[in-house]
Amino acid sequence: MDKTNKNKNFKDTHILLSHGDGGTKTGELINNLILRYLGNRILNNLEDSAVFNDFKHNKIAYTTDSFVVKPIFFPGGDIGKLSICGTVNDLASVGASPIALSMSLIIEEGFDLESLEKILQSAGKILKETETFVVTGDTKVVERNSADKIFINTSGIGCIRNNTCISPVNIKPGDKILINGSIAEHGLAVLSSRPEFNFKTDIISDCAPLYSLVNTMLEVSDKVHALRDATRGGVATVLNEMAQRSKTIINIYEDKIPVKQEVESLCEFLGLDPLYIANEGIMVAFVDQNDSKKVLEAMKKNKYGINSTIIGEVSENSGQSAVILNTKIGTRRIIDKFYSEQLPRIC
Question: 168-334 falls under which CATH superfamily?
C-alpha cells in the first residue's frame, strides 16, 4: 500500500462516534474509504436495497455469517479477508457461484483508520479474485470497549447450475472423502497471534476463497455428492454432521490426513487435536467412488487444491451414524462431535 496516500481525505486518524451517526463524517467514511476498496456500479448508488436482474431460470443460494475473530490481524489474513472467504466458501459448499455480497461493519469508537483501510483493502482483493461484488452494506459505530475493535457481518447470494444438487442426503456407501490440503492451520495461526501465548511459529492461516476449486470439481463430475468447508469444529465436526445427516458410517485414515509437522508438534504441546481445529481454506468433499480419481486430479490442478488427497470413505448405510478413525498404529476409535470449541473467537 502506498503510505503517502493513506487516509488522505480524512482529518481524523481514528473512528469517532460521529462516523456512525449518518451525518457528514459517515459520508466521508463511506465515500472516501469504504467505496475506495469495495465500490462498484451497484454499491456506488448507495441505495437502501440492491436491485438485480431476474434469476427465475436459476436456483439461488443465500447465506449469512458474522466474523468476530480475535486478533483481527493474524498470519495469512485478517478479518476482512476472512469475511469474504467465509461467505464465498459457504456458497461454494452447495455448488453456488457467488453473485453479490453485503457487508455490515460494527466499529468501535477509537479504532484507527489505518487498520480499517487494511481490512477493506484485504477484502477488496478477494472480491476481485472471485469476481464478486459487495452491493449493499451498513456501518455502525459503538462506544469504546463495546465491540472489540470491529465486527463484520456478510451475506451472500449465489447462483446454482440447474443440474447441480449438492447435499449430505446424497452421500452413499462407497463414496470417497476428499480434502484439498493440510488441516488446523487457521486456528493455530490465530491462537499464536494472541498476546497471552508467548511463542512464535511459522504457521499461517489457510484462509482462501474456494469457489474456483469447487467449480473445477463440478466441471469434471456430476457425482460430487456433498461439500462442506471445515471451519469451526474442524474436520471432525464436519464429518460427524455429514454422517448424522446421511445416516452412514464414515471411515477415515490417520496416515492419510495431511497435517504439517509444525502443526502436529504444536497441537501435542498444547494438548489439542488437529481434527477439531478450525480451517478457513479446507473443503471436505464426498464423491462417488467411480469419479473420485478424476475429481482428485482436477483438484490438484487448482492452486487451492495442489495437496488434495483421499482421506477415507463411506462404508455403511444402516440407519446408524459414526465417524471412525483408523489410527497409524492399527487401532480404531470413534471421533465424536466436539462438546465445546477448543479455540474460541477464531472466525
Answer: PurM-like C-terminal domain (3.90.650.10)
Residue 60 grid cell = 439461488
Task: Tell whether the model's pLDDT for residue 23 goes beyond 90.
Answer: no
Cell numbers for 314: 463411506
Q: Report residue 334 as a C-alpha cell.
A: 470413534
Interval 260-302: pLDDT, tens: 999 999 999 999 999 999 999 999 999 999 999 999 999 999 9
CA distance 14 to 30: 14
Element housing 191 (H / E): helix 185-192
Tell me the domain boundaries of the chain: 3-160, 168-334
Q: State phi, psi for 164 to the nearest 5 degrees.
A: -100, 130
Q: Half-sphere exposure of residue 233, counting CA atoms within 13 Å on the CB side?
A: 14
pLDDT above 60 (res 2): no
193 and 79 Cβ atoms separated by less than 8 Å: no
Question: Which cell numbers in the block locate residue 325?
Answer: 478413525
pLDDT digits (tens, 9 = 90+) for 172-190: 999 999 999 999 999 999 9
Separation between Cα atoms, residue 190 and residue 71, nearest integer Å: 7
CA distance 4 to 232: 39
| CA distance readout (Å), 258 to 250, 251, 252, 309, 311 | 18, 16, 12, 8, 9
SS3 at position 50:
coil
Tell me the Ramachandran region of residue 40: left when phi exceeds 0, alpha when psi lies from -120 to 50, beta otherwise. Answer: beta
Q: CA 23 to CA 141: how far, in whole Å?
A: 12
CATH T-level assignment (fold) for domain 3-160: 60s Ribosomal Protein L30; Chain: A; (3.30.1330)
